[in-house]
Design goal:
- This protein has 250 residues and is of the alpha/beta class.
- It folds into two domains: 55 residues, no CATH class; 178 residues, 3-Layer(aba) Sandwich (Rossmann fold).
- 58% of the residues lie in helices and 11% in strands.
- Strands 2-3-4-1-5 form a five-stranded parallel β-sheet.
- Helix 1 packs antiparallel against helix 2, helix 2 packs across helix 3 and helix 9 packs parallel to helix 11.
Length: 250
């Protein structure tokens, strides 16, 4: 079997990266500089790395992040009340292994969404399945799913996520449907997977936002008792960035 046939069969077996590297080495006459064992290991490692990269990219797309947020870009300025050591421990993702949650609160613009997405990005890099969504958007989507018969499918998708990031929680009080849907989501994920909830409002006000005492108690009991809490302070980061950019232009 000649090299062209070998490359063709590698492609048919969906070993594209291996086929590409093998073809490059043949064209450059480099394949003879390795022992058979070394060359097989080289091709195998290249194919493995390519598949891992593709998997991570697929997880990032499926997560649905709104921003390209990464941990190295997180600003740990003291005025935000963001403890670098505490946040670094969360960024290690051990909270996912322990099935714990994170509650991120603070005024608009202090960086809640960015921080949650940075952790989510890190989780994808370590091959965790992540879903990022705004609370209002999620409940609206589930309400439509209830009508068209895809509700269970959507709920199963949420349950399979090892990390669910629920952003902008509490911008409006929950109606009966949203309240019951949230209870179902939290109950299914309790001690099974991790959830990050980001909100402009302090956790102490969530009881009233959720409404209906029994359901609110059930939801908060499952969320709060197994969570890490980050309460961000300070002025809007967006405002600070605009000020810096304006000063540069002037």
């Amino acid at each position: 079997m000649n090299n062209i046939e070998t490359i063709d069969k590698l492609k048919k077996m969906r070993l594209q990266a291996m086929a590409q590297l093998h073809n490059q080495h043949i064209e450059n006459h480099k394949h003879n500089s390795f022992t058979p064992d070394e060359y097989i290991a080289l091709l195998t490692d290249h194919q493995w790395d390519a598949r891992q990269d593709n998997k991570i990219q697929r997880l990032l797309v499926q997560a649905g992040f709104r921003q390209k947020a990464t941990l190295p870009e997180v600003n740990h300025i003291h005025s935000r009340n963001l403890d670098k050591n505490a946040f670094s421990r969360l960024a290690s993702l051990t909270f996912i292994d322990r099935k714990e949650n994170i509650l991120l609160t603070g005024a608009s613009g202090v960086g809640k969404s960015y921080l949650s997405q940075a952790i989510g990005h890190q989780a994808c890099m370590f091959e965790h399945r992540v879903i990022y969504t705004g609370a209002a958007r999620l409940f609206a989507k589930l309400k439509i799913a209830k009508i068209d018969g895809t509700y269970l499918k959507e709920m199963n998708k949420l349950n399979k996520a090892q990390l669910l990031i629920l952003d902008d929680f509490g911008l409006q009080a929950l109606d009966n449907f949203a309240r019951e849907a949230l209870l179902e989501i939290i109950d299914d994920r309790y001690q099974q997977t991790s959830t990050i909830i980001a909100s402009q409002l302090p956790v102490s006000t969530w009881y009233d936002i959720i409404g209906e005492g029994t359901i609110a108690d059930a939801i908060l009991d499952r969320i709060v008792n197994s969570s890490h809490r980050i309460e961000l302070k300070g002025e809007s980061m967006r405002k600070a960035i605009k000020t810096v950019e304006s000063n540069k232009n002037n």
